[in-house]
Design goal:
The protein has 421 residues and is of the alpha/beta class. The protein has helices spanning 12-15, 23-34, 48-59, 79-87, 95-107, 155-170, 191-197, 230-244, 260-271, 285-291, 309-316, 320-326, 331-345, 393-409, and strands spanning 4-10, 37-44, 64-68, 92-93, 121-122, 127-129, 138-143, 146-151, 179-186, 209-215, 218-226, 252-255, 275-279, 300-305, 349-355, 370-377, 380-387. The chain has 3 domains: 4-170, Molybdenum Cofactor Biosythetic Enzyme, Chain A, CATH 3.40.980.10; 179-255, Alpha-Beta Plaits (2-Layer Sandwich), CATH 3.30.70; 260-409, CinA-like (Maf protein). Strand 10 and strand 11 form a beta hairpin. Helix 9 (260-271) runs parallel beside helix 14.
Length: 421
Amino acid sequence: MTPRAEVFAVGDELIHGANLDTNSKYIASQLEAAGLHVARFTVVGDEPAALRDALAEASRRAALLVVTGGLGPTLDDRTRDVLAELRGGPLWFHEPSWQQIQAWLRQRGRPVPESNRRQAWFPPGAVPVPNPVGTAPGFRVELGAATVFALPGVPREMQQLLAQTVLPALADWPGLRPIAQRWLRILGPSEALLGERIESFMLPGRDPAVGITASGGLLTIRVVGSGASPAAAEAACDATVAELRPRVAEWLFAEGTQELPELVVEHLRRTRLTVAFAESCTGGLLASRLVDVPGASAVFAGGVVAYANAAKQALLGVPEALLAAHGAVSEPVAAAMAAGAKARFACDLAYATTGIAGPDGGTEAKPVGTVCFARADAKGVHAWTVPIPDLGRTFVRDRAVFEVWRDLLRGGRAVPSPSTV
């Protein structure tokens, strides 16, 4: 059987909503690629009894537990204490870990509080795991039939220790079936309509498994396959994707497990194009999400958030008469915004967005969700309108961003402007 793994994220800040657990998602992707079956995520606070019960129960279900968080120097960092209790013995002090903690702090000109000594104490039977990028060592310990890896909660530190210790330790485990994934990005149909189109691929027990996820108007078909080797898993996924493509061709605009802004940057670099944005209703979302990607400076010329009509005139050269005749939310104004951005930033492509994100401002002729787009390139300026469902201000703005990504990734080829998502 494929070994079962469970992932724990520890900390009151997670259960109270102050911070978002991003570690579990990352860990699961790495464990599944290595061939384990990740069966459960658990987010638990710092209360010792809750953490103790959760770990004890999971150790009876899973072969591997990966725990992040609770390894800091303060009294509310209790992962080591709880695991010591479950192991039935006191913590023990590891002098080499303490020396490494002190050296790490001193190399950065920071004081060495005595409280950092807590991070050099470990449960009985634990094997310390050095942390080269922080003060919190991890450790490996057995709990019943399960192997537990306790890692720091700081994502950068967790990722380092996962790569250098956890994944290599799993290489020789029996029963591993590596997992591969393929993603197809869909924009246009409703989730129900897409589900009907690919229904025969979504039957329970199918390998590769096929499912649909929805986010902000974007649909993603996820294909997840397993195999005796990474190559076999990838081949199985590729075969399923080859069958799916013709069924969804009119809605498919991107493939890959990367985030869409990363795919956009890669596309622009590959085609040697630069882009600029003139944004009204999206309020800078296009620019912000693009510059989140390292290397965006090679392809992103700049952007203008021209929310008010006066800003559209002053910053992008939109004629006052055009605004008066057609209104800010119109294809002629979107076209003028895109042309103005292309001229001012001297780029290959420019996109404009202007619309009604709500909750107010809609009319019978232009209801909330009406968004006009324009693309200016070497061939001229093309404008179009998408009636986005009024599912909230955030939904409308996110959906508008996806529309631009779709047009850009499809090379400006005309596609049906969907009215349902």
